[in-house]
Specification:
By secondary structure, this protein is an alpha+beta fold. The chain contains 6 helices and 15 strands. It has 3 domains: 84 residues, PH-domain like (Roll); 105 residues, Pleckstrin-homology domain (PH domain)/Phosphotyrosine-binding domain (PTB) (PH-domain like); 80 residues, Arc Repressor Mutant, subunit A (Orthogonal Bundle).
């Protein structure tokens, strides 16, 4: 674990502490003496070289961190990769792509993750992390643009930035784009039921189910085994978020079955 100097807002005063940074958590030295798992973080806001972190233990709590830019960049990357996001999408994006209605000439498509947390939409790649406050979003629309001479569908997010209207753009495969668009248009709403243990993958499964995607397609899109999807479904049933519509049996041929089909195939070839 690497330790770095930082300042933490404690009882309305900035206190100098040693901040331990690990792959899955941060550890704050005395007088605060606190450990925060990244997976417990539900929101991240950056203002004036300060990170405002919202996390949940027994209750929702807020932590404000000041440090040098290099430390804040490392923290943002680690938090956004592991936090309890409402949505996480691998995509190409430009943020911003337009300013004041005009294209930004040096704006390039960047590959990374679009991470939606409680109050922000973050655009994240290995070298840069920038965000749009959900409060500053003015419109979310499907649009078209040209990429390498081809017309493609994108999501255009119009938002305020530096006192003027800007636009960010998101590009990904059509099926994922449509699902993300529906999620954003739904206002980033989610059920707030005390005690729920719904993680980022669960939320994506819920969006896919609502959109009519079948189980096999969900497994392929999210790259999860059917055992994990079954466990997620069980959680939904327990929380009364879903009900069973049909039960599908999966079978595997026995040695006798394999022998029979092979013999039938051989007889047809003759």
């Amino acid at each position: 674990m690497k330790e770095v100097p930082a300042k933490i807002d404690h009882n309305n005063e900035w206190v100098v502490v040693k901040l331990g940074i690990d792959e899955d958590k941060i550890v704050i030295s005395e007088p605060i003496n606190q450990k925060i798992q990244f997976e417990s973080i539900v929101d991240l806001i950056e203002k004036s070289n300060t990170l405002i972190v919202t996390f949940i233990t027994n209750e929702e709590r807020i932590l404000k961190i000041k440090s040098v830019n290099k430390v804040l960049e490392i923290l943002k990357k680690l938090i956004l990769n592991s936090c309890d996001a409402n949505y996480r999408l691998l995509a190409y994006y430009k943020s911003p792509a337009m300013r004041g209605g005009a294209l930004i000439k040096d704006a390039k498509w960047e590959k990374g993750n679009v991470v939606v947390v409680k109050n922000s939409i973050w655009f994240v790649n290995p070298t840069k992390q920038n965000s749009v406050s959900i409060q500053d979003v003015k419109s979310i629309e499907l649009a078209k643009t040209e990429v390498k001479g081809k017309t493609v569908d994108i999501i255009r997010i119009d938002h305020l930035g530096s006192g003027e209207i800007m636009s960010s753009q998101v590009l990904c495969p059509t099926a994922n784009l449509q699902l993300f668009y529906k999620f954003l248009k739904n206002g980033n709403k989610e059920a707030e039921i005390e005690g729920d243990k719904i993680d980022a993958t669960d939320k994506q499964v819920m969006v896919l189910v609502q959109s009519g995607v079948d189980s096999q397609a969900i497994e392929n899109m999210l790259n999860i085994p059917h055992e994990k999807l079954d466990a997620i479904y069980d959680r939904f049933l327990e929380l009364k978020f879903a009900e069973v519509m049909t039960t599908r049996r999966e079978i595997k041929l026995t040695g006798k079955g394999v022998k029979y089909i092979l013999e039938r195939t051989k007889s047809k070839i003759k």
